[in-house]
Structure prediction request, 333 residues.
Amino acid sequence: MTSQFPGIKPSAETPIRAPSAVPVDDAVLPFEVGALDLRGRLTRLGPALDEILTKHDYPPPVGKLLGEAIVLATLLGSALKFDGRFILQTQTDGPVSFLIVDFQSPDRMRAYARYDASRLKDGQNSAALLGKGHLAMTIDQGRDMSRYQGLVALDGGNLEDAAHEYFLRSEQIPTRVRLAVGEEWRGGDGPKHRWRAGGMLLQFLPKAPDRARLPDLHPGDAPEGTVAHMVEEDDAWIEGQSLISTVEDIELIDPDLSGERLLYRLFHERGVRVFSPLPLRAQCSCSRDAVSAMLGSFAPQDRADMVKDGKVVVTCEFCSSVYEFTPDEAGVE
Prediction:
């Protein structure tokens, strides 16, 4: 079922209504602006994000960076039309050398960051934490199906920059992404510190392909003085980019501002249509049986080397769950 905000011609299937004032956390809200040929998704994360980040007690800069990666993964992974996994992963030479977000459709997510605490400094932004390396985005469609992976170089930019580069080079779809992560501090009897995040993805998808043409990528070996290929941007996409650029971080993470009201603020003059929100939850896929199977895949000597104090202990990097096995249970001879 769909609903629309004022500005779109009403019909029996899509009634006009006012934007809901009730904030919805841990969900992706798909939307479209038909008058501008724009489609997008808005993610708002609260308790699910807090659960993932607090299990590891990450330093604030690391938590913020991993939160941005989680938001980006939900914006992209929620578009999967099949039961599969979307995996976002970075490997770099920065203080945060490794990030991974595992999104399993339709709604499960888990994430982990590896960092060097001695290299963390006050005031480091996301680009400085990442350093140089690459971002990999993998779509796993399950057994007997091919995997798709796109790679983007990380060279001093942040995750928003990397997402824009990915869509420019791999998808050839005019796209803009906004990511925001913050820490919420509240008094009273409840939790005083909580993580929150939000993000928006906006794409220009006109029916006529020529309207969405992008400039040719630089070939890298063109003779000196070669004029770069230019394409005049469509007025609708210029307007869309201008509107999303006005979104502030506080609007994306404000617990008292509903996603529908934010979209109405941005697009009410053109009319925005929203679809049913897609719920999200933090849930690891590890289990005792899965860990036991993993141990069984190791060489006998490797399993023997894992025995400490008469037992084998395995800790899940994602959720910090601890699994203990006797040598017999671990298959140690």
Remarks:
- The two ends are 59 Å apart (CA to CA).
- The chain has nine helices and 15 strands.
- Residues 25-282 form a domain with the Hsp33 domain fold (CATH 3.55.30.10).
- Residues 1-12 have pLDDT under 50 and may be disordered.
